[in-house]
Write a structure and sequence with these properties.
It is built from 2 helices and no strands. By secondary structure, the chain is mainly alpha-helical. The relative contact order is 0.17.
Length: 55
């Protein structure tokens, strides 16, 4: 189950980075900045979720 959570977190961060790349790239002309920001936010959320549900 731990490997599934790890893979799910990586997939979520990847899709958040892609979304940030396109959303901030289109609106603010900050392609990589938006991708990094969205990936970091999703990563923190995944870490907090996993720490809360450690069983």
């Amino acid at each position: 189950m731990k490997k599934f959570r790890t893979v799910a977190s990586i997939v979520i961060m990847f899709f958040a980075a892609v979304a940030g790349y396109f959303i901030c790239g289109a609106g603010l002309q900050e392609d990589m900045g938006g991708a990094i920001l969205f990936a970091v936010i999703a990563g923190f959320a995944c870490v907090i979720y996993n720490m809360d549900n450690m069983r």
